[in-house]
Amino acid sequence: MRCALLLCVSLAACQPASIDPDATLATLERRDVWGGARWYRVTISNAGKLTWEGNADHLPLTAKLSAAELEQVRAAFHQAGYFELTGDFACRGLTDLPVLTSSYSDGARRRTVEHHLGCRQVPGIEALNTLEGRLVEIAGAPRDLGGY
Length: 148
Hints:
The chain has 3 helices and 6 strands. The chain has about 150 residues and is α+β, with helices and mostly antiparallel strands. The model is unreliable at about 1-15 (pLDDT under 50).
């Protein structure tokens, strides 16, 4: 009996900490560099709450992602190798182009990547472009974001 109790305590200690459903899983923000005249930000929580914010007339919007859509978000970051991307996607010499900033947390790690859209010759850029497009697709981008 004592061994069974110790085994239960040991197994409980090895379980991952519970994930806060209100914590942010992922974000994607797009903004103009010159003065930030146009911008939007989509935020996805661990529970699937999706919020679009920005300066378009019809924002903010909120929605709820399904469990399958949440898994698609996680898979998109995994497939992109987000935590392993090593390129400098800021390309700071291209200051007149819009910037996409993404972030992701897998529960143990958090990373943010700033991507100037003129950056084209950086290792990993194709994976980052695919990820960003996939996030907009999964999040159901509002149709008219003023050129976004």
